[in-house]
Design brief:
Helix content is 22%, strand content 31%. With 179 residues, the protein is of the alpha+beta class. It has a 4-stranded antiparallel sheet with strand order 3-4-5-6. Strands 7-8-9 form a 3-stranded antiparallel sheet. The protein starts with a strand and ends in a 5-residue tail after the last helix. The relative contact order is 0.14.
């Protein structure tokens, strides 16, 4: 699968050959995923191989929907009202956060999917204009409001998104990965 890797490492001894091993990599989430509410400490919903298989498929579907590389790690997803890119208004949809991107789109195809690098987000916090919404303030001054969170309380979603945003910004400035 896309989380399998072959690691080839040089030997510390210049007279010996490099060594290799196979590895399966699993990523943890930081908050809420899909329509299931909080995830457990390992980032999984439910038990058993069927649940893991469904989880992998769901993550793969999200990465494919937004045309993200397989190297992106899906960290959180929220069902909420998402802003339309053209005109005004919102649609019921999903807000996804990965290590480097925030992306959103409508559930029923009534609108356009959007993808934004975390580096383009200056700040996020409670909206002053929309009740119980999270407002993203972009570096160009644009404000986007996400409201009507279903599985998570707005404040819990905001805390998770702020953590992801902070880690993404830190990774951009220091190069240190902290996931």
């Amino acid at each position: 699968g896309s989380n399998d890797a072959l690691l080839v490492c040089p030997s510390l001894n210049p007279e010996s050959k490099p060594w290799a091993c196979c590895a399966a990599i699993e990523f943890e989430t930081l908050g809420f995923v899909a329509s299931t509410g909080p995830v457990n400490e390992r980032g999984r919903r439910g038990r058993g191989s069927n649940s893991r298989s469904r989880d992998r498929q769901w993550r793969s579907d999200v990465l494919r929907r937004y045309n993200l590389p397989a190297t992106e790690t899906l960290l959180a997803q929220f069902s909420c009202h998402v802003p339309h890119l053209t005109g005004s208004g919102t649609a019921r949809g999903e807000l996804n956060a990965t290590r480097h991107f925030v992306c959103w789109g409508p559930r029923q195809g009534h609108g356009q999917d959007a993808l934004l690098m975390w580096s383009k987000v200056e700040a996020l916090g409670p909206s002053t204009a929309v009740h119980e919404a999270i407002e993203f303030i972009l570096v160009d001054g644009t404000k986007l409001a996400f409201s009507g969170f279903v599985e998570a309380r707005r404040d819990d979603a905001l805390r998770t998104l702020r953590e992801i945003h902070s880690r993404a910004r830190s990774e951009l400035t220091t190069g240190a990965v902290s996931y």
